[in-house]
């Protein structure tokens, strides 16, 4: 570069510094920025603009220009690299490397990282042939104490990019990279080990330790451990895992990888694994030895728990033989109950669960470690009694509070131990009786609430839940005794002035509500034991409990938690009463009437509890024997109207109640249909009007969606009782509403689903409707298929056509009674062949799509059609579609378009081939090979001889088919 060039480059650099500074100035207008952007784009298109970029990197301190130059280099490397001369490539590589070495202390870290990434990107494509000194560059940096961190950054990024590269690299190149990289690993590991051994002598030892262990932790995710993890390296790494910091987490991550993988245990392997097992427990001992666990970070604790889990799950036999008295389980026990973070505690409990699962085939260990497991139950019981300090108000996505999760996790452990030692279920009952007696005492003498904190009632919630989880271990007499006690307490706790409504502290009120709701919920799980107990029924306990529950649900002063528990218990109490309705009619009518006549709105109850009450009320109405059918229809009609007070805008509760109250016998469905028919007709009328309205569509679309959902659910529930006239109106309505097909995707899908239901259940003789539905489906589907467009409606359209074929088969293949009975195989006469052909053609097109959901849906559909109607054996299908379908499916296997469905595709091809194996092997496969491009004649000859031998057994057929498609794929690549 001569002096004149330097002047030009300097001028250009200054010019772009000013431009970029102005470009990023907040006061610059968009018009100015747009003009500058055009200049920047032109710069990137200039020949050898990279030379100017190199000059900028070496001479500028403007960070805008430095990043701009790096971005231009990145664009050149990714898009124009192959167009550059080898000399230019080499010059640019060396320039970037020299900038890294010389300026790494001046540049910000993110810029150095970007330059390293540029060189690694080049190496991904060029190393080792066109970039032979890439690894030498890394080694050069690693052995230089001043540059060692740079070398480690290079090595880490190389490991990440070479072993798990983006999809823009061919499989062959990916393999080459890994193989070539592996050749240098021994040398690199030797250097890394030396760095670790000498890092303590450097001023930045912490950074070096962290960086080296980070490299190792990445490499050991893919390296074969047998060759590269030596005892010497292990002993260098072990001390680094004990001091809680980023280095220790990296180190433990390495050990976790080593322990998690499966490999042949050589002598060295056995030594390393045994060392790591013992090392893990030394880590646990170190943590336990510290008086307060809080100093250990959650990240460190998590990785220790992960390793501990792997060691105990995978190396039980070694631990069992090495620790004669189960010291490793003693350590785990202490470690488990030193966890302050709930997630870490839960992970420890998961380890115990995995132990119990493994012990099913180790009967000797069950007795050997009995004392430890019993200690575990005692410690869990103590832990479980701290539930009151855990959040019980905020629900997660699964509808559980932290407190519920906490109790369930702990109770699972007790249940697991009880499975091994059923005897532990007895003390649980004994403890529960102590707690429940305290509660009964307070129920009888509320003044004792002043000393509530000193009572054992506090433990009643977890104890009751534990008791319920162990119910399978108790004798029937004990179960009934427990259930009766729960029943009596449930009645007493809600019938009189409840304790939680007395003037006590807020925390006491909260606990009392929890206790009473837990008793009610537990009773719902035990109640079945009393339903057939004659003494219980004679004592009218069920009626008392039913009265208490209904009264509590009507009482707006009761807490939501009590209402919810009553809602859960109500069905289990009511069902036996409905079975013996004549004995309880007056009581049910008296207590449920406020719900039936609407005098109580139930708005004070949450949705789930409201549904429970309304389902119970509806079941009573439908079961009540004292009313004639006409009266019952009128009463039911009024009740159903009350469930949707806002009319068509409020149909969800109505459908939920009707669906949840089933299943119904035919006579009951007829009554329901007569009662709901006016609402159905109103829904159809409004749907027509709303969809044809010219006003704003959005709010109406929401209403239409609710209406269509309602019609769909009612049709599915009551289709066999609906009048033919209404079904005809419903069908015609959905077919006529053309505008909906473009107005709303969700509405379109819902209407297609309803049409599919109607096709499934409608009269077999209704050919006109079938024809209209086919025409509608094809008119909407064919343009989408032709444009290779697959919006969400496509799946519903294909399903509609599938329903036509599956449930209206006789529309295409009318049965001939004389022929069908005597000669079933002659059932090949076809009607409406043009529509049948078009349906199968659009299904065939779907097998050429990349949309795996559509492909899978239709593959399953044609298989079901074949199972039900012998589709592939029909002469019409064999003549027009068999060869086409098999060709398309074989192409999918050759091209590996849907590898995950290979077995399903092979099975379908087998079923198609099996209708005429001779044709498949002697005619179809040879013709398929002839039509396959990019295969030489000698390859075709080889495939015919080796892969086309007639085989009719399914397993061999599928293996041969997989080999054939693989051979064709490989032949096309050669």
Number of helices: 49
Mean pLDDT: 88
Largest sheet: none
Overall morphology: globular
* Rg result: 38 Å
Task: Give the amount of beta strand, in percent.
Answer: under 5%
Q: Give unreliable regions as ranges.
A: 818-826
Number of strands: 0
Question: What level of helicity do the residues show?
Answer: over 70%
Structural class: mainly alpha
Give the N-terminus to C-terminus distance in angstroms.
47 Å
Family: Belongs to the exportin family.
Pfam family, one: Xpo1
InterPro entries: ARM-like (IPR011989), ARM-type_fold (IPR016024), Exportin-1/Importin-b-like (IPR013598), XPO6 (IPR040016)
Organism: Acyrthosiphon pisum (Pea aphid)
Give a quick set of tags describing it:
about 950 residues; mainly alpha; 49 helices; nucleus; protein transport; Exportin-1/Importin-b-like; nuclear export signal receptor activity; Exportin-1/Importin-beta-like domain-containing protein
């Amino acid at each position: 570069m001569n002096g004149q060039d330097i002047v030009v480059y300097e001028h250009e650099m200054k010019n772009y510094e000013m431009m970029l500074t102005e470009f990023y100035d907040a006061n610059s207008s968009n018009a100015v920025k747009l003009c500058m952007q055009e200049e920047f784009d032109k710069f990137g298109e200039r020949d050898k603009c990279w030379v100017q970029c190199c000059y900028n990197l070496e001479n500028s301190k403007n960070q805008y220009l430095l990043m701009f130059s790096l971005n231009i280099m990145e664009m050149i490397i990714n898009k124009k690299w192959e167009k550059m001369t080898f000399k230019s490539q080499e010059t640019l590589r060396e320039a970037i490397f020299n900038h890294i070495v010389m300026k790494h202390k001046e540049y910000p870290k993110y810029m150095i990282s970007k330059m390293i990434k540029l060189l690694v990107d080049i190496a991904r494509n060029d190393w080792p042939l066109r970039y032979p000194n890439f690894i030498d560059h890394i080694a050069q940096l690693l052995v230089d104490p001043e540059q060692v961190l740079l070398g480690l950054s290079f090595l880490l990024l190389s490991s990440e990019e070479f072993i798990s590269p983006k999809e823009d690299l061919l499989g062959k190149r990916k393999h080459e990279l890994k193989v070539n990289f592996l050749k240098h690993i021994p040398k690199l590991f030797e250097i890394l080990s030396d760095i670790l051994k000498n890092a303590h002598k450097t001023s930045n030892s912490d950074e070096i330790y962290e960086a080296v262990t980070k490299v190792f932790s990445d490499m050991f995710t893919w390296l074969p451990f047998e060759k590269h993890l030596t005892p010497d390296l292990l002993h260098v790494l072990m001390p680094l895992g004990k001091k809680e910091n980023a280095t220790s987490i990296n180190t433990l991550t390495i050990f976790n990888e080593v322990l998690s993988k499966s490999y042949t245990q050589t002598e060295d392997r056995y030594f390393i694994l045994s060392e790591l097992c013992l090392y893990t427990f030394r880590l646990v001992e170190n943590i336990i030895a510290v008086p307060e666990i809080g100093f250990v970070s959650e990240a460190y604790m998590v990785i220790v728990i992960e390793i501990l889990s792997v060691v105990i799950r995978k190396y039980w036999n070694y631990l069992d033989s090495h620790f004669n008295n189960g010291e490793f389980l003693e350590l785990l026990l202490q470690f488990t109950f030193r966890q302050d973070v709930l997630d870490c505690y839960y992970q420890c409990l998961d380890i115990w669960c995995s132990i119990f699962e493994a012990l099913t085939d180790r009967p000797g260990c069950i007795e050997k470690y009995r004392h430890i497991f019993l200690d575990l139950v005692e410690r869990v019981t103590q832990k479980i009694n701290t539930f009151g300090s855990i959040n019980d108000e905020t629900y997660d996505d699964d509808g559980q509070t932290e407190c519920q999760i906490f109790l369930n996790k702990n109770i699972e452990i007790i249940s697991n131990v009880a499975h091994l030692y059923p005897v532990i279920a007895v003390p649980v009952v004994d403890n529960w009786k102590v707690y429940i007696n305290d509660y009964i005492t307070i129920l009888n003498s509320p003044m004792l609430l002043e000393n509530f904190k000193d009572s054992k009632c506090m433990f009643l919630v977890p104890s009751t839940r534990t008791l319920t989880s162990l119910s399978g271990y108790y004798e029937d007499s004990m179960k009934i005794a427990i259930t009766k006690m729960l029943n009596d307490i449930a009645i007493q706790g809600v019938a009189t002035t409840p304790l939680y409504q007395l003037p006590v502290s807020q925390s006491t009120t909260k606990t009392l509500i929890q206790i009473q709701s837990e008793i009610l919920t537990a009773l719902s799980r035990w109640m079945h034991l009393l339903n057939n107990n004659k003494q219980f029924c004679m004592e009218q306990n069920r009626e008392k409990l039913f009265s208490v529950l209904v009264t509590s649900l009507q009482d707006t002063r009761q807490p939501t938690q009590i209402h919810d528990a009553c809602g859960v218990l109500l069905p289990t109490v009511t069902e036996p009463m409905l079975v013996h309705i004549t004995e309880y009619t007056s009581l049910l009518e008296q207590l449920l009437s406020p719900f039936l006549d609407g005098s109580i709105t139930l708005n004070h109850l949450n949705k789930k509890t409201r549904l429970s009450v309304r389902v119970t009320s509806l079941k009573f109405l439908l079961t009540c024997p004292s009313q004639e059918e006409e009266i019952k229809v009128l009463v039911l009609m009024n009740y159903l109207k009350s469930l949707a007070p806002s009319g068509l805008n409020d149909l969800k509760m109505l459908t939920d109640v009707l669906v949840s109250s089933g299943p119904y016998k035919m006579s009951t469905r007829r009554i329901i249909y007569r009662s709901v028919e006016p609402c159905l007709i109103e829904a159809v009328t409004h749907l027509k009007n709303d969809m044809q309205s010219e006003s704003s569509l959005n709010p109406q679309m929401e209403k239409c969606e609710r209406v269509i959902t309602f019609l769909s659910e009612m049709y599915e529930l009551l289709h066999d009782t609906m009048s033919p006239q209404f079904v005809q109106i419903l069908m015609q309505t959905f077919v006529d509403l053309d505008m909906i097909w473009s107005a709303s995707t969700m509405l379109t899908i819902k209407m297609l689903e309803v049409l599919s239901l109607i096709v499934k259940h409608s009269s077999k003789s209704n050919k006109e409707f079938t024809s209209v539905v086919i025409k509608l489906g094809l008119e909407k589907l064919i343009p989408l298929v032709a444009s290779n467009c697959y919006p969400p409606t496509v799946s519903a359209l294909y399903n509609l056509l599938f329903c036509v074929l599956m449930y209206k088969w006789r529309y295409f293949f009318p049965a001939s009674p004389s022929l069908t009975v005597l000669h079933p195989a002659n059932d090949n006469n076809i009607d409406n062949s043009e529509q049948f052909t078009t349906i199968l053609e659009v299904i065939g097109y779907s097998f050429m799509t990349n949309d795996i959901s559509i492909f899978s849906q239709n593959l399953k559909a044609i298989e079901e059609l074949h199972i039900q109607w012998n589709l592939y054996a029909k002469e019409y299908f064999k003549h027009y579609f068999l060869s086409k379908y098999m060709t398309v499916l074989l192409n999918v296997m050759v091209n590996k378009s849907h590898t995950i469905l290979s077995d399903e595709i092979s099975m379908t091809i087998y079923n198609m081939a099996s209708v005429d194996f001779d044709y498949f092997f002697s005619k179809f496969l040879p013709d398929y090979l002839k039509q396959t491009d990019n295969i030489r004649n000698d390859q075709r000859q080889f495939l015919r001889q080796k892969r086309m031998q007639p085989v009719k057994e399914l397993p061999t057929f599928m293996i041969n088919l997989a080999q054939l498609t693989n051979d064709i794929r490989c032949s096309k690549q050669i």
